[in-house]
Amino acid sequence: MDSAYSIILGVAGFLSTLKMNILLSFDKRFTQLKRTMVYARKDLIAFGIYFFLILFAFVAVNTLVLGCLYADYKSVLATMQTLLVRRFTLVFST
């Protein structure tokens, strides 16, 4: 039941995003933003690659260093969840 609800919610979110993009394509500011993103595509892709390489290196080092000490850092996936999700949750909740 939960998986069917998640799938329906995901499809509804995708369709609403698609509809919003179609509606915003008539706006001058959105068109300008779209042209800017197309112009900066190479730089954005390069930034994304470098960002994820550095992020993965950071996660790998934390897994290797803290994996034997804490249960939250036992695997790469658990380390990424701990570093990204739980850290920001603590910052925004206080």
* Unreliable residue stretches: none
Q: How do the SSEs run, as a string of H and E?
A: HHHH
Strand-pairing-aware structural class? mainly alpha
Radius of gyration: 19 Å
Report how far apart the termini are.
34 Å
Principal-axes geometry comes out as flat
Number of helices: 4
Mean pLDDT metric = 85
Oligomer: single chain
**How many structural domains?**
2
Beta-sheet strand percentage?
Answer: under 5%
For the secondary structure, the number of strands is: 0
What does this structure look like?
- With 94 residues, this protein is an all-alpha fold.
- The protein folds into two domains: 39 residues; 54 residues.
- The chain is built from four helices and no strands.
- The chain is flat, with a radius of gyration of 19 Å.
Characterize this entry briefly.
The chain has 94 residues and is an all-alpha fold. The chain has four helices and no strands.
SSE topology sketch:
Layout: H1 2-24, H2 28-39, H3 41-66, H4 76-93
Using brief descriptors, characterize the structure shown.
single chain; 2 domains; flat; mainly alpha
